[in-house]
């Protein structure tokens, strides 16, 4: 089973890299871009784990290891 975890800054945190990309897009004529937020993607391959245990451990891993919970949020999903 593969899991994709998306990490991004919380809405209240300034994202300077996202702002730089947005400014570059505006310079290229894409004025309809309202905002850009950058983040990280992790893909985990799990084996020999129940769905209940997966639902416990994946958020725990994201919270403790992959994301800085003070400034970042995460979301995850099962991928094929």
Query: What is the number of strand segments?
Result: 3
Going by CATH, the architecture would be: 2-Layer Sandwich
Main sheet overview: 3 strands, antiparallel
Number of domains: 1
Q: What is the name of the CATH topology?
A: Mth169, Chain: A
Quick one: CATH superfamily?
Phosphoribosylformylglycinamidine synthase subunit PurS
Q: Please, what is the average pLDDT?
A: 96
Query: How far is it from the N-terminal to the C-terminal residue, by CA?
Result: 7 Å
CATH class: Alpha Beta
Structural class: alpha+beta
The Rg value, from CA coordinates, equals 16 Å
- In sequence order, what are the helices and strands, one letter per element? EHEHE
State the helicity in percent bands: 25-40%
Taking pLDDT < 50 over at least 5 consecutive residues as the criterion, the unreliable ranges are none
The largest beta-sheet arranges its strands as: 2-1-3
Characterization of this structure:
The protein is built from two helices and three strands. Strands 2-1-3 form a three-stranded antiparallel sheet, covered by helices on one side. The N and C termini lie close together (about 5 Å). The mean pLDDT is about 95.
Which helices and strands, and how do they pair?
Blueprint: E1 2-9, H1 16-27, E2 39-45, H2 51-66, E3 72-79
Antiparallel strand pairs: 1-2, 1-3
How would you concisely characterize the structure shown here?
This protein has 2 helices and 3 strands. It has helices at residues 16-27, 51-66, and strands at residues 2-9, 39-45, 72-79.
What labels describe this entry?
Mth169, Chain: A; 3 strands; 80 residues; 2 helices; 3-stranded antiparallel sheet; alpha+beta; single chain
């Amino acid at each position: 089973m593969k899991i994709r975890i998306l990490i991004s800054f919380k809405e209240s945190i300034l994202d300077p890299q996202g702002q730089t990309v947005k400014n570059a897009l505006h310079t290229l004529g894409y004025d309809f871009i309202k905002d850009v937020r950058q983040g990280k993607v992790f893909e985990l391959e799990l084996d020999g784990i129940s769905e209940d245990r997966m639902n416990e451990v994946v958020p725990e891993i994201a919270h403790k290891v992959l994301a800085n919970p003070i400034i970042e949020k995460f979301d995850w999903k099962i991928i094929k």
